[in-house]
UniProtKB/TrEMBL annotation:
Residues 246-500 form the Radical SAM core domain. PROSITE patterns: MTTASE_N, MTTASE_RADICAL, RADICAL_SAM, TRAM. Residues 503-578 form the TRAM domain. This is Mitochondrial tRNA methylthiotransferase CDK5RAP1. It comes from the Eukaryota. SUPFAM superfamilies: Radical SAM enzymes (SSF102114). It comes from Molossus molossus (Pallas' mastiff bat). Belongs to the methylthiotransferase family. MiaB subfamily. The keyword Iron applies. One of its GO terms (biological process) is regulation of protein metabolic process. One of its GO terms (molecular function) is metal ion binding. Residues 1-32 form the signal peptide. It catalyses: N(6)-dimethylallyladenosine(37) in tRNA + (sulfur carrier)-SH + AH2 + 2 S-adenosyl-L-methionine = 2-methylsulfanyl-N(6)-dimethylallyladenosine(37) in tRNA + (sulfur carrier)-H + 5'-deoxyadenosine + L-methionine + A + S-adenosyl-L-homocysteine + 2 H(+). Coiled coil: none annotated.
Amino acid sequence: MHHLQCILQAQRCLGWGPLASVSWLLLRTCRAHSSFSGTSCPRPEGQQENGVQKDFSSRLATGPTFQHFLRSASVPQEKLSSLDVVDPPPYLTVDELLGRQRKVYLETYGCQMNVNDTEIVWSILQKNGYLRTNNLQEADVILLVTCSIREKAEQTIWSRLHQLKALKKKRLRSRVPLKIGILGCMAERLKEEILHREKMVDILAGPDAYRDLPRLLAFAESGQQAANVLLSLDETYADVMPVQTSPSATSAFVSIMRGCDNMCSYCIVPFTRGRERSRPVASILEEVRKLSEQGLKEVTLLGQNVNSYRDNSEVQFNNAVSTNLSRGFSTNYKTKQGGLRFAHLLDQVSRIDPEMRIRFTSPHPKDFPDEVLQLIHERDNICKQIHLPAQSGSSRVLEAMRRGYSREAYVELIHHIRESIPGVSLSSDFIAGFCGETEEDHLQTVSLLQEVQYNMGFLFAYSMRQKTRAYHRLKDDVLEEVKLRRLEELITVFREEATKANKISMGCTQLVLVEGLSKRSATDLCGRNDGNLKVIFPDVEMEDVTNSGLRVRAQPGDYVLVKITSTSSQTLRGHVLCRTTLKDSAAYCSPE
């Protein structure tokens, strides 16, 4: 065991990659000296050491050598599969690394990145012999892909764990013991605090440690807790093809980069997702092609700062010019040189399938050079919808947030985008009650909502996160009731202005990608327009313009033209005209 302790400590210091070995692997065993942290770890009440555990412990005690880890660290990331079962760690056998048809239940919380991470996790586990189940009661492994962006998101997980504790206690002894894992940002932020607080949690895996899941689950089978929350400087899962979790899906998320370098003072993302690193263009294009071949009609390119994408894998492009930022914007880091940028990727992705819509999220306002805006304007299949997180309408608060722009620069960018992309749909994020926010600052945010008139918005009360710059340098001095009051005021104003903005669509004919039945009516269908607004329309027969004289009913994945007859702050309604194609239709609303 001493060998393993030395290796773990050395690995943390050297910062080896996710498959270099166990990484930050916490093994909570029955002996006080068996944890690398040096703390005592008593056996759970009633648990007896059996022959399997003795055999496992004896193999673990012999431990891998430094040579084993050095061999693993020298293998290039692109050559690694989801698990090297040919040469397993010395303390595990090949059979122990396989799922042996154990059933996995996955729950996803939080952002679109977590949805994509869930598909990556399932791809890795499926290749290692696990089965997927949507029935919680029959699961052998329950994995929660978690969010840590706000306190409320974490409280949701703690509540869910309390529910799962009862399920674990009721598990019949005749069945395989139920294992529960916490994955993603909450695992990364809280680390072993989760294991100490909830003894029923068996494994932790941070966002960069999903390749290690088969090994962590193998350790958990021996009755121990295990965790890998090592952040990586190069992990992008470029060689892992995500497995779509919904067979009837018409759209998919494609992760193009991970992490964030912006270091906004309120944001936990750089500490839970790590530094920015981008997937090679070739691997992204391959994934999009496969999705097109599967018949999917919409792809959303994902990243914490998606439009700061930079592929440095091709040496010949590493001497390219510096990054072009939006006018009046700055960064919190040194200007980056070289690499293939977001405009190049967006251009290549949009050429794969003219009938596939392309979206991207979540961008930062600083990374909208003219070449990106021009490309969005020119390509019919790149949606004319831009998410432009403002966070506040006060220049003073924006400076405290370290956003890299003033209100004036942001508004100028809004005008420039609307001039460059006529009819563009805009959405934004806002935080109510950030550190030091005064009533005047709040009113400036209200006035920004009124000035811009966003089509969609995501508004939240500020929730201070440990490790952030705000936690160390600022004071969370806005009372909770004041935060909530300001949030309600922002939501009210947003809805009023969005209602005005969406009224422009009245009488227009819009292209809608059908998603399926409306949740509120079995006689209606729903889909989304180019601006990503939900559109509801009756499920009736219509003309198919690609087959003259043919009458059809719309199916998920079809493009239809809908004439808008009523609008609200969040939804459009209309009657369907015909089934069509993206190429043959107007790109967006055309008045009649």
